[in-house]
Every structure is written in structure tokens, then in C-alpha cells.
Amino acid sequence: MSTAKHASFDFTVDRLGPCRIPSPLQLQKHLFVDEDERTLVDCDLRSLTPGAALDDVPSMETAGPRSLIFHPHYLSRAAIVTCGGLCPGINSVIKGIVETLHSEYGVREIYGIPYGYAGLARPQDHPPRLLDPDGVDTIHMEGGSILGTSRGNQEAAILVQNLVNMRINMLFTIGGDGTLKGAQAIHQEARRRNLEISIVGVPKTVDNDIQFVGRSFGFETAVYQSTQVITAAHMEARSIFNGLGIVKLMGRDSGFISAYATLANPVVNFCLVPEYQVALDGPNGLLKAIERRFRKKSHAVITVAEGYGQHLFSDLPAQRDASGNLLKHDIGVYLCERFKAHFQELGIPVGLKYFDPNYSIRSVSASGTDQILCHQLAEYAVHAAMSGRTNMVVGFRNGNFVNVPIPVATHERQKIDVNGPIWKSVMACTGQAKYFDPSHQSRPE
Amino acid sequence: MSTAKHASFDFTVDRLGPCRIPSPLQLQKHLFVDEDERTLVDCDLRSLTPGAALDDVPSMETAGPRSLIFHPHYLSRAAIVTCGGLCPGINSVIKGIVETLHSEYGVREIYGIPYGYAGLARPQDHPPRLLDPDGVDTIHMEGGSILGTSRGNQEAAILVQNLVNMRINMLFTIGGDGTLKGAQAIHQEARRRNLEISIVGVPKTVDNDIQFVGRSFGFETAVYQSTQVITAAHMEARSIFNGLGIVKLMGRDSGFISAYATLANPVVNFCLVPEYQVALDGPNGLLKAIERRFRKKSHAVITVAEGYGQHLFSDLPAQRDASGNLLKHDIGVYLCERFKAHFQELGIPVGLKYFDPNYSIRSVSASGTDQILCHQLAEYAVHAAMSGRTNMVVGFRNGNFVNVPIPVATHERQKIDVNGPIWKSVMACTGQAKYFDPSHQSRPE
Amino acid sequence: MSTAKHASFDFTVDRLGPCRIPSPLQLQKHLFVDEDERTLVDCDLRSLTPGAALDDVPSMETAGPRSLIFHPHYLSRAAIVTCGGLCPGINSVIKGIVETLHSEYGVREIYGIPYGYAGLARPQDHPPRLLDPDGVDTIHMEGGSILGTSRGNQEAAILVQNLVNMRINMLFTIGGDGTLKGAQAIHQEARRRNLEISIVGVPKTVDNDIQFVGRSFGFETAVYQSTQVITAAHMEARSIFNGLGIVKLMGRDSGFISAYATLANPVVNFCLVPEYQVALDGPNGLLKAIERRFRKKSHAVITVAEGYGQHLFSDLPAQRDASGNLLKHDIGVYLCERFKAHFQELGIPVGLKYFDPNYSIRSVSASGTDQILCHQLAEYAVHAAMSGRTNMVVGFRNGNFVNVPIPVATHERQKIDVNGPIWKSVMACTGQAKYFDPSHQSRPE
Amino acid sequence: MSTAKHASFDFTVDRLGPCRIPSPLQLQKHLFVDEDERTLVDCDLRSLTPGAALDDVPSMETAGPRSLIFHPHYLSRAAIVTCGGLCPGINSVIKGIVETLHSEYGVREIYGIPYGYAGLARPQDHPPRLLDPDGVDTIHMEGGSILGTSRGNQEAAILVQNLVNMRINMLFTIGGDGTLKGAQAIHQEARRRNLEISIVGVPKTVDNDIQFVGRSFGFETAVYQSTQVITAAHMEARSIFNGLGIVKLMGRDSGFISAYATLANPVVNFCLVPEYQVALDGPNGLLKAIERRFRKKSHAVITVAEGYGQHLFSDLPAQRDASGNLLKHDIGVYLCERFKAHFQELGIPVGLKYFDPNYSIRSVSASGTDQILCHQLAEYAVHAAMSGRTNMVVGFRNGNFVNVPIPVATHERQKIDVNGPIWKSVMACTGQAKYFDPSHQSRPE
What confidence tens digit (pLDDT) does each residue in B310-356 have? Predict the structure, then answer.
């Protein structure tokens, strides 16, 4: 990623106004972050213009507590909403927000909105729950979202009116790309009405596909869970003649989980991701590649991201889910059918075992260091909101937590660079190239 | 189960002939089991005729090493074959057979047949592998079958001829109902040709549905694995409004895994098994029951055994797999479709999450005490084979290992007694009756 | 175990009086157990006198719901107390008792006594907690005891007086040998005062050493946990030259956990249990045996039950814990010191890694089928108490749940039969005999 | 960490000579890293001099494959040695080195040195093992080191002579601080003798205490394992009156594991690390703090790094291990004794449960994303060695892999900044300050 590219982004974070209230945080002075502290977007000198002055290279606002804040804590009422699919660690983020607001800033009115934006749109059906540290003390050990989630956006005007009715001045949204765009709409509506509401997101994307936020929470846990399913697929595949284990993993637009799970459990022979489409048919297609693998080893394991191979459905009508996300056609089921038909036609026996662990992976609690990331993101989200920042998400880049404007974070999906080292490692550990192209010489002899 | 019923079985185990060779086992005398030692089939006095003499009540042959054996160990050549679907612990059984044959009896020629009966039918394609303790030392830590399995029976005449060609005098078959029937056919063909081959089975049935063998190996591990999927379904279901988690579990004819997993993780609201069919439609049907649950709790978790609800497909043609097993129609997928359609029609939102962890559960290695059971069954199978027993399987009943004739074990499938305590406990822990029938008063007030 | 031996026990269960109240359980008639239903103690015909009449062989009372009960449910007040060390599944038993009392029998006043008998002796310091199904709904997922435990017995007169003060007519005690003896003392004091209090125990012994109760709850989970520590010891031992991994496991008087964990993870080279003492010194002692193992394989793994080798401390004064249990000297620490000194003297390098996972194993929740056992024991304990049985524990034998008088259960500790099949399997899987005695030929050549 | 401080380091990596051989890697051109590519040491603009030119701020060499290399692959002989205590992921690093050397660079002679430097000093006792991809295919699933390790340094002259005898031109050392200093001594001796041997380290430090290498491999897994022991301690502590669970964790000089495990499982009440010594006695000491905690909550959980509280042993003589590391006195055992004595004196009952999971944590295999880090570090180590770099280790900083001179990496131990955000979070999540100092007001009211 070049400086040029990053230079085109406006990393300035929106603020409700100047901060004039001394922070109630009892911190040593040096732990407060200066208003204008920044973190370089890139620290690889190859990406930066040689000879440039430090001040000119792209940078992002460093996240953290400020010594002056915007919202008086004794008047503050915060709301937390969780949207979209499950992801390990949602409850840990909720816990972190509640604890930081309550114990660090002394905010006592913290509301959990049930069932995502849908619940915020209809509080009469789903009354908000008052949250405090005792109530969230052990929720980090549970998967799912204690608040409940929903998909789909709602009328921003209604949401803002309900925030006004509840006298909320800080809204924390835990959700993915669609949720963040919804947060931006809420922000715009609030601004139009001159409301001083901080809208701060904690990006939730088990696919790890949101730009500039570094590794997203839940990703580490999801990769770990995925490796266990891959082991199962491997055991099934090698226990039958021409056993074929197919593991569909999350990744609508980006194959990060498939790629990382493949690297973390390198018994996979083919890793299929949206960023690297391969033909199904033809002499160098996937079907022929599996044939070659069968001839050599009598079994194969495939990981496939759910967003892979959508061009194969080009003659089918597009569908969208409640959030407006383009619905992916089920590539796992499709591949199974094509594989069965193909090998039946050739008279080659095949023992196909299909794994779709999506929900099992999403619904566990965050483990180990992932748990810490959740809590930290929550803390930094609270610091940002208390200081009047809005229309932003927290991220982690180059060793620092940073505040990222929502428009920058949602500009486009982060994707695997198929010319970069991660994909090169995937190709090396699967050895798949040699099955697609038998003339391929991947190794010096 | 009454004495009368058990009295109708012939528990006599087939033998190749009298045992005349002193056992090479270096055991204290009392550890050898007498030729005629027996274990009562029932030890609940209610099941037995009052006043009866002990000698008259049904009993099974106690398994174990005999002081005289049939096959001379120095001339013996054993073969092991694994058939059918995976089950936790197959490798542990293989390890146990190899170790007992080799280290206890001194048998040095032990062959692993690749890919089940299919491999035994075509040794030219799948040459047998010589096995020894070093080669199987750590296989118990791996899932699957190191030998490979296949489904489907083969011509008994061909199998027997190949056993003769390989000079095998002991065949160990690890497999389920179909496999055991295949073993019986091999036995009959061998007997017809006056061959002295012991055919001894270790019953493999993750469904736990083979009669008189007690708890089958892998079942404990499968239940444990299933509970984790149920937790995932629970987390998904309660994280959305009207969330509905559906977990399809193994159990073609018997719902033991579904019932035990439900008891072991009692967050399940509906447990559906083949032995207890409930209507889908109507005022007391499943659809209405879920509606009632939604009104009360806004989410539900269902476990469903794969053999449940096959009557719903009565208008579809029957299909059979390679082993001749009647192929079940996919009840999980069917229920999902019916649920979606039903609630859509009613305008009730529903968030359906479907889990099909079949292969993930089957492919793990046996854990803890299940590991021990595998090894013990293997040891007792070897003792039986060395003493010239044949056409039998090993089982565990009333605290003793026993030798069970294949015709008895395969006479009919073991099923949950829906009038017995296990099913009563399932009904109690799910509380499902009150959703099916709102007038139901399951508890004293 | 011979009939003769069992014939000497009086298996008659104490009762408070005749049952006259119709059970509130809504069960089909056949699910009620007849008053006089019994289960044979032994069903191995070798253990029984040939030709005997069924009615004459030793039998135990079959557990289960009776159609007539003793305590009117609407007047009943139950108390639950947990004593002694932790064990996987305690909370599951508590949950089972509460649910069965409340939902099946309609008992509404169920008290949890904090911190064991100590809490029952001083309710003013530790007020009892009212328990109901909602409050215990998810406790089975947590380790430990939600009530808290303590060691040591208390004055029976005080305990009974407190039961009277609280108007308790059913006391459920979850604890081991000492706890059950305490329960018996409570029963005797209550009887002396003509009080109609049912005292029913659920035997808790992670060591699995209580007679006639079959496999005790928590044992399956403890074995599983132990196998993981053994794997760690194995990895440590083989990663250094002459690495020696020593795993001390539970087992004060009986080595069941050590033996079963060794069988379940057969990488152990020496299994040391109280029932099979081996000398430390001398040409056939443990130190020489390890030397031989080092020469052959350069590493070794040892499991040792905490009760092993207490004779080595014969010159030290005896100590007792608060429950009056003889305190074991720490054999793990002692062995480490002796090993270090021995090999240092010989100039043989040794890399000693000591594992004492006791508390880590005891504190987990019950897993899988163990979870079910906990709930069933709880149900049967409630059935027994409601029908006026007292001074008894529930057990599981030969496929049936049974009611066992406390004096029988605590008569002596269950131990591994070192002449039986389990110990023989341990010797076979460790191969330890050949290291103790190099002339030993365990295998035919 | 200020620029000034980092400016004092010489980040120049030693090289054996100019690279003239075209790399055999079949990479797209842009995937090769330029010889002079660098990564900024700090990218937080606060740490950097305002207005500075980019070229003047401290930077490190970016790691990665170069288009020209130093060692001809067809003549190369590599050796791998693992030293010191176990750490999750050692085998994954070995696998990664072997695969990259063999499959990417075509090096065919790769030797595993048994038992660390001790084995390299005495190859006659411990002959090196030839390694290839097949032999290391599944070792990443096992804990420990397949090569074996040892502690202690050896005479550099002897080690170098043995490298010469074996004609090794690349030595990969997987080890910690002491091992790296040993590697530096080997490098110096080799340079003195004008030998062209690349000495490249993969830093192994489960304590995460080596500077400039970012998160070290195994750390993520160790934190995850530690959280489970903390849960056990919590269950034990809260199940008895005044239960006190003490978990000793790794961390000789730095408390990273204790701090991160505490954050990842925030049931801990006191976290004790070497960087933040607290008094044991006195009104604000640890003993009084636990008293206060007991009065409030009746139980407590403590994590303590092994390097904590060494001043308490100041009157005992210092001891060193075979590697010359100062041996720590056992703070865990010491605290247990002090706690017991203290509360006994006060007549306060205490239920002390001590956990020392050191070896259990170190001996597992790396999980999930940790597995990937191992492989990547291995790849970059190979790239560095092939290009003639030496006396260096690979690290990961600010999103890039970097080459770090050994003298810089071992200059001093990385420690927790007790004035930084991590320690502040630990203080917040434990709430321990208020127990040490009852007047402490950590939260706004």
C-alpha cells in the first residue's frame, strides 16, 4: 500500500465541539494522549516518499484518553447496540464499554438496546436494559450477544428520535460494514438536527475485512476454531478412498479466515478465496486439479470462503439480505453438487464430506489474547466518545490504537493481496499450484 | 426387557472346534476365564421369574482369556478391517487388537486391510499393510481410521477366497450392523468351505443401537462433542429475536445421541427422535409448539436425530446407500424449509440457524474413559478369536465383557424405550410437552 | 468378589416409616418401582453359588420413584449440603436435586447450606440460600460448588438442632467417605430424637473408592483431565535428555484415577498406586527401574497416586485434616527429591518435571455423559428421600440405580484388584515390569 | 520509548559479504525486498522528533527474501538447534525452517541437532538427524521439541569446530536470551576464524521479554492456557470460605504472561509482577490487602510471576542454572507459607490452593494464529541466513518482519511499563489498589 493511496484519505475525525471539561480519569499526566497525537499509517519506508518530512506522511489520530473531555459524565446517558451476525467477543466488548463508562468515567446510565437497530427502532417492543458492572461481570465467558442482534438498517430519523427520547448522548455500535454505514446515517441525521450525540463504532467483522482497523476482534478465535474443523475434514477425507473434505468458512468478500486457517492447519490442499478465482472446468480448472490430487494421494481437503466463485451463479438473480448485503449463493453446496456429478460421470469414486461450521465458529466466546483486544477496543471507544468524537470507529495499527473516520473505514473492503506474502504462503503450504498446472515447478530441483 | 423376551435368544457362541493349545498368556491362573463362565443378561429381579433357579435364567458367555486356545499363535495370521462411517476410537481399537495379538499372544503377522470390505475384495488395488505395535503406538490420538473404510458389502465368496489366499485365520471386523451381517456371510461361506477362520467383530455404532453390547465405543465422545454444538446453537438462538437453533445429530434408527446430548446439555427445548414421532402440523404439532415457545421465550433450540420424521417423506421414493442401508431423507434441511415457510406465512420473524455437525463429531479421537473401552473391547475380541470363537461380537453388559453371537446382536436395533426413564428425563429437562399441549400440567402446583 | 463376601452385608435400607401418600409424580404406572424391587449385587455366575435360587443371592434395593411416598410434598423443606474437596459435577447434582424436588414433586422450600457441615453448624454466620430451578438453571456449566464446601465434621447434636430449627425434613449430603459417616451420625441423632428426617447422600469421590456405588460422578471427567496433564509430562520428558515427567494424581487410598488415566493415555512408563507398592531402592526397586528405562529410551513418564508410598514416611508423625482423614505425606515432592539425589550421586543427568494438577482437575465442570450421571444420581436421591428412606446413598450397579445403606457403602474403601484385569492392563500398557526385573519376559518371543 | 533512546542503538545487521547469487525463489519481482528496505522503529509521532526528516528517524532492516543471496543453495548445509525451556510452537518453527530451506531454496542437507548446544558440543553422543519436509510434516501438532533441548552454554570454540566438521554454513538457533548470547559467541568465534557461517536466531521466550521482536511465538498460546488455570483457581477459591487461589505463572524478569492472562480472564484480584513490587507486610502490604478482600468477598485469586518478590530472599545465597541464569527462589511456595502462617496467627481460616502450571503451559503445541507466527518467523530466518546475514534474530514490529542484531535484542529485557496502559488496565480489572490502600478512590462516585 503506497503513500499515494493513503494520502487520498481524509483521516480527520469528526468532533461535536471543543473539549472543556476536565477528565474524571485518575491518571498520571503522561497517560493522557495529546489532542493532536498521531500515528503513521505506514511505517515501512518503502511505502513512503524518500526524503519526506515526517509531518507530511499520512497519519491517523492516536486513540486514548484526553485530559479534557466533551460530555459531562454526570449528565451522560450511553446506549450500546449490537448488529449483524455473531462474532466471538461481542459480550467482552459490551463488558468493556460498561466497565470503562461506569468505573473510569462515572457514567451511571448505560442502556443496552435489544436486537440491534431493530430494537432501537421499536423500544416499545424491546425495552432497553440498564447495564452496570455487576450485570456484565461474567458475560465475557459466554458466546453470542447478551443484547441480541438483528440485521438490516432502519430509518435514521426514527433511530435518532428514539435516542432523543431516551436522552442518549453516546451511542456505541458494535457491528460490521453495514452497521457502520447505518451509524454514519444516524450521525448525519443527528448533525442535521444539531444534536450532540457521539456515535462511535467498534468494528465487528469476523472476516477481518474492514480497512485500517488492523486485526478485528474475534478473528483470532475464529481462526483457531476453524483449524479444528479442518482437522475433522482431514480425518474424514483420508479415511476413505478418494475422500474429499470441503470446509466452507466465513468470508463474503475477503478470504482472510480461509487463508489464515489454512496456514494455521496446513493439511489443506486447496484454499479458495474471493480474491483468487480459479476456473472450475478446463484442463487447468479445479475439477482436473482434484483429479490429479486423487491420483497422487487418494484424498483432498478444500477450504472455501463463502464469497468465492460467485461468478458461477451469474445467471441467477441477485438477492439481498435485510441489511442490504448482496446475498451470496451457497458455493459450498454448489461445489458439492458439481464434484459429485463430475466424478460420477468419470466413474471415479469419491467420498464427499461437507462442513459448514459458520455458526459454530461465530458463537463461541473470545479466547485468550482476543479477549484482551475486545476490552481494549471498548476502552478506546469510550475515550473517543467521552471526548466528543463521532462518526468514527476504533482500530489498531502499527502498535497503537487509532481513531478512524467511518467513511475511511468503510471506503472499501480490505482484501488479501494475492501478490503479497500471506497468499504466497498459502500457495506454498497447500502446494495447490502444481495440481492446477502439472507443468508448474514450484520448487528448485 | 423381560426374561421371556431374552429367553427366546440363542446366546450360544459359534466355535471352530475344541481348544487344545495352552495359552501363551503369562497370567495368574484365576485370571483365565472358565470355558463355561456366564453373565446374567438381566440382573434386575423384576425382569426375572420369581423363584427361578439361577441356572435357568438367560445368560451370555463371559468374555476373556481362556487357558486353552484354538489357534496356534506361531501359525496365526490376523487381518483387521474397518467399515462404514467414522466413529471416535476406531484407531484405538486397531491399536488394541495389534498390541494384544502381538505382545500378549505373540502373533507376528497382522494385516490391516485398506478401505473396508472393498479393500478385502480387491487386494491388488489396495495391498494390505503389515501392522506391529511400533506402527500403531500413537494412532489412538488421531481421529478417523488409519486403514480407511468403505461402505457396502462385497461378495462373500470373493472375500473368503482372498482370506484364504492371504492365509488369514482370524478376521477382526470393526463396523456396524451392515458390517456385522457381512461378517456373518463371510463366516457362513468359510464354514461351507470348512475353513477354520475366526470372524470376530468389534461393534462400531456411534448411534449406540446394537443390542446386547452395552455402551458402544465412541458414544461417550460423540455425546461430549454434541454438547458443544448445542451450546453454539443456544448462543445463536438467544442472540436474535425468535432465534431457532436446529442441531441434527446422528441416529438413523435410534435417538440415543440426541437424547443423551440433550440430557448432558439441558438448554434444548425440543428433542426429536425416531422412537417418538410428533406431528408437524395441527394444534398439537411441532410448528404450533415452536410458536408457543417463541411467545414465551423468543428463542428455541431443537435437537433432531437424522432418522426422525421419515414418514414426512412417504411420497418420495426410497433410496439405499452402498451398504444397502435405507438412505434417510434429510430431515434437518426439510425442517428448516418447513419452519421458514410456516413462519413467513404467519408473518412471524424467525432467525433460523442450522447445525449439521455429523462429520465433525465422528472424526475426533476417543477421549478419556472412551479410550479405555476401545482398548478393552479389542483385547476381548482377540481373546475370543484366539480361542476359536467366531460369528460373534464383544460387548459389555452388567459389569462384564461378554461374547454375543452376531445373529443376536443384529436381530433388531436397540432403541430408546419411550416409556422408560431416559426418555422421561428428556421430557423433563426439555419441558417440551407443555409446548405441544398447553393444557399439559407437567408439574404439581 | 464372591457371593460369600457380599452375603455378609446387610443391604436393607433404613426407612422413616410406611409410605401412605400418593406420589404427585405424573408417571405411567410401570415407571414406578415396586417397594421390594431388587437388583442382584453380582451377575457373574462365577461369583454365585451354582444351583442357587435367584431369591437367595445377594441383592440391593432398586432405586426409583415409588407410587406411595412418605413426606407430603406441600409440607416438605429440603436442605442440600456439599462437603469436602471439589469434584467435577457437584453443581450438576445440586441442580438435579432442586429441579426434581421442585418440578417433579412440587417441593418449594429448598435450602442450600453454605460451606458444608460448618455452615450447617453456624447458620447465623452463613445463612442458607433458598434455591429454585431458575437459580440453578446454568450452574452445571460451572466448576466448584455454588454452595461452598468445608472439611471436617461437626457435632451431630448441633447439626440436628439446626435442622429442626429450620424445619428440614430432607437433608441431601454431597460428599465422600467422611461426609457420609457424618450423615450417619446425623441420622442416628435424629432417630434418637424421633425426628422424621430423611438423610440421603450422593457419594462424591473423585477417587472412585466408595463401595457399591459403581462409577462415581466426576470420575469420567477427572480421567479425561488427567490424560491431558500426562500428555504435557510426556512432551516435557522426551524433550530433554533423561527427561523424567512425574504426575501426581488424586487417590488417597485407591489408585483408580492413576490407573484409568494411564490406560486412557498410554504414554506412561510407570504407574504407582497405593494398592501395589514397589520398593524404591534395591536391584528391583524404582530407582534402578528408571535407570534401565533411561538407558533404553532416555526419558520416562510416571503417574503416582497421592496415597502411594506412605510407608516411606513411617518415621514421621501422622497428621490428620479437619475431617479426621489421615493426611498423606506428599509423595510427589518426596519422589522428586529422592530422584534428584539418586541421579546426582550416580552422575547421571536427569531433567525432572513435576506436575501436581489436583486442583485443576477437581475444579472443572462435568463433561458429557458425566453430566447425565450427576443428574440421574440427584433424581434417584430425591426419589429415595421422598419415600422416607434415610441413612443411605444412591449408587449405580449392573445397569440399575440402587439404594445403598451408608454403613455398607463406607464399610471399607473400594480398591483396585491388583490381580484383576484393570491392573493387568496397566502393567501391559506401561510395560513397567520389565524395568523392575530385567529378567522379566512379558511377551512370548 | 523515545526516539532518543532508540537512536542510541546500532540496528545494522552483520553480513558475511556481498550477495552475488541469484535467488532460486520463484517470486514475482515485487515480492523481493530491496537490500536497504527499512521499517521505522516507532510510528507514534509523539515518540519522534517533530519536523524530522523520515530518513533520520531510527529504523530497522525489513526482513524478507532478497533477489541476490549469499549462500549457494546446492552447497549449503544447515543445522537447527533448540535450547532452553519448552515453549508452544518450537516444532512449528523447526517445520517452517525445514520447509523453506528445502522447498523454497532447494537446500537438501538440513540437520537437527539433538539436545541443544549440549548436543552440538558432543555429536558423538547425540548424532545429528537429517530432516526433510516429510519428516516434519505433522510435528507442528505436537508440543515440546522433536530435537530435544538443553540448558547451558558450551565452549564456543568446540561448537564452531563441530560446525566446521559437519560443514555447516547456516546455523538456526531457537532459544531465549542466554541462547542468543551463546549464538553471538559462536558468531564471534566463527568470524575470528574467517568462517562464512550465518548464525540466525528465532527468539523463543514464552515470557515475551526480548526487545524489538514484538510478540514472541508461543506467547498467545501461553496466555490462553494460563486463563484456564485461572478459572480453576477461581472455582477453588470461591468454593471455600476465605478460599485463596494462587497461580504462579512464567515470567522471570517480566510479568507479561501474568498481566495478559489477568486481562484475558479478569477474575483475578491481585496480579504480582517483577516490575511492580509490593510489600508483603505493613498496613498497605499484601497480607493486609488479602485480609480486606476476605472481609469483603471471602475469597481471592492471585496471579504471581515467578520473578516477583525476589527481594524477599535477599538473605539467601544466589544460585544459577546450567545456562548461567540467576535461579529464582520459588515465590509461589514462599507466599503459600507466609499466607498460611499469617492467617493462622490471626486465627482467620484460609483455604489455600496453589497452582504451578508452568510445564503444562509450555508443553502444548501452538494454536491458531500463533501457529502462523511460528512459520513466518521461520521463513524470515531462512531468508536472512540465505542472504548471508548473521548474528541476528528475526522479529515483528509495526506490521513488518524485521532483522534485529543480537546485541540490540539482548541489550536488556523488555519489561511491562508500569506507567503504561497495559499495567493501568491490570490495575483497573483487578481493582487491587483499593485493597492495598483503603483510602484509595479508584472510581469517581
Answer: 888 887 777 777 666 677 789 999 999 999 999 999 999 999 999 99
Contacts of B380 in chain C (CB under 8 A): none
Residues A186, A257, single domain; the answer is: no
> Does C29 contact B at CB distance below 8 Å?
no
Per DSSP, C66 falls in state -
How far is C214 from D88, CA to CA, in rounded Å? Answer: 39
| Residue in C37, C260, C264 nearest the CB of B46 | C37
- Residues spanned by the domain of A143: 3-217+366-397
Asked if residue C445 is part of any domain, the answer here is no
- Is A352 domain-assigned? yes
Read off the CATH number of the domain in which A306 is found: 3.40.50.460
Whether C244 and C300 share a structural domain? yes
Query: Chains with ≥3 Cβ pairs under 8 A against B?
Result: A, C
| Residue A443 covered by a domain | no
**Same domain for C343 and C211:** no
d(CA C223, CA C266): 13
Nearest to B45 by CA among C13, C32, C40: C40
Q: Which CATH number is C29's domain given?
A: 3.40.50.450
Q: What is the pLDDT of residues D414-444, one digit of tens each?
A: 999 998 889 999 998 999 999 998 776 544 3
pLDDT at C93 over 90: yes
**Per-residue pLDDT, C1:** 37
- Residue range B272-292, pLDDT digits in tens: 999 999 999 999 999 999 999
Same domain, B323 and B394: no
- How far apart CA C443 and CA A188 sit, in angstroms, is 82
> If you measure CA to CA, which chain C residue comes closest to B96?
C429
Q: Do C282 and C288 contact (CB within 8 A), yes or no?
A: yes
Cell numbers found for residue A391: 462518526
The answer to whether D66 faces chain A, any CB pair under 8 Å, is no
| HSE of C104, CA atoms in CB hemisphere, 13 A | 25
Which chain D residues in 363-422 lie under 8 Å from chain A, judged by CB atoms? 367-369, 371-372, 375-376, 379, 397-400, 419-421
Q: What are phi and psi of C336, to 5 degrees?
A: -55, -45
C-alpha to C-alpha distance for A80 and C400, rounded to whole angstroms: 53
Give the chain B residue nearest C39 (alpha carbons). B44
In a shared domain, residues A96 and A146: yes
**8 Å CB contact between A391 and A187:** yes
Distance CA D356, CA D249 (A): 7
Task: Give B55-121 as a DSSP string.
Answer: GGS-EEEEPS--SEESS-GGG-EEEEEE-SS--TTHHHHHHHHHHIIIIIT---EEEEETTHHHHHH
Neighbours of chain A (3+ CB pairs under 8 A): B, D
Q: Are D359 and D375 contained in the same domain?
A: no
D311-325: average pLDDT: 76
Same domain, A328 and A378: no
pLDDT-based confidence at residue A366 (cuts at 50, 70, 90): very high
What is the percent of chain C with per-residue pLDDT over 70, rounded to a whole number?
Answer: 96
Query: Which three three-digit cell numbers place residue C268?
Result: 506412561
What are the angstrom distances between the C-alpha of A165 and each of A16, A114, A169, A183? 20, 16, 11, 18
Q: How many interface pairs between A and D have CB atoms less than 8 angstroms apart?
A: 181
Please name every residue paired with C394 in a beta bridge, in sequence order, or none if there are none: C403
User: Taking the model in full, what pTM does it have?
Assistant: 0.94
Residues B135, B15 share a domain: yes
Per residue in D205-224, pLDDT (tens digit) is 988 889 888 889 999 999 99
Number of domains in chain B: 2
Q: Can C330 be counted among the known catalytic residues?
A: no
What local confidence, expressed as pLDDT, does residue C435 receive? 94
DSSP string, D290-309: HHHHHHHHSEEEEEEETTTT
Q: Which residues are registered as beta bridge partners of A388?
A: none
